[in-house]
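User: quick one, sequence for these tokens?
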């Protein structure tokens, strides 16, 4: 995922606090739940802190505790953003592999298996993504 597009404001705040990759790890792990952020003053608080640290790492867990400690943090599912990121990964892999000489059908089969999608769904994803500048220039050469 290249930026904050499709992200709710609360997740954009998390991105500012702990970075995009770690915020997305938090979303993938805890998305759709309310997490009580500990102050680390009790055994339960330490357990919750360790749970956060397992997901996002010590530095990010410390930042979350400092910012939200003692409160509750609702972590949205971010379904649209996660799907957009997945679709972009699928497109990038397809373009790279077909440029390296693999057949489109072979690459689509691999993508379907990797993402647990039907091959029809992968083809539909590839059809709906915006064309790259290279694809536009190729189209212009064909038309000329």
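Assistant:
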């Amino acid at each position: 995922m290249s930026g904050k597009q499709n992200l709710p404001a609360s997740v954009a705040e998390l991105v500012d606090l702990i970075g995009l990759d770690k915020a997305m790890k938090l979303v993938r792990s805890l998305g759709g739940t309310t997490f009580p952020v500990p102050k680390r003053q009790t055994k339960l608080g330490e357990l919750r802190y360790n749970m956060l640290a397992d997901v996002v790492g010590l530095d990010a867990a410390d930042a979350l505790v400092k910012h939200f400690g003692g409160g509750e943090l609702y972590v949205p599912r971010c379904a649209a953003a996660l799907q957009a990121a997945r679709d972009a990964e699928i497109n990038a892999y397809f373009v790279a592999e077909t440029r390296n000489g693999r057949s489109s059908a072979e690459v689509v089969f691999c993508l379907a298996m990797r993402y647990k999608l039907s091959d029809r769904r992968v083809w539909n994803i590839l059809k709906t993504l915006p064309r790259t500048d290279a694809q536009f220039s190729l189209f212009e050469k064909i038309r000329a």
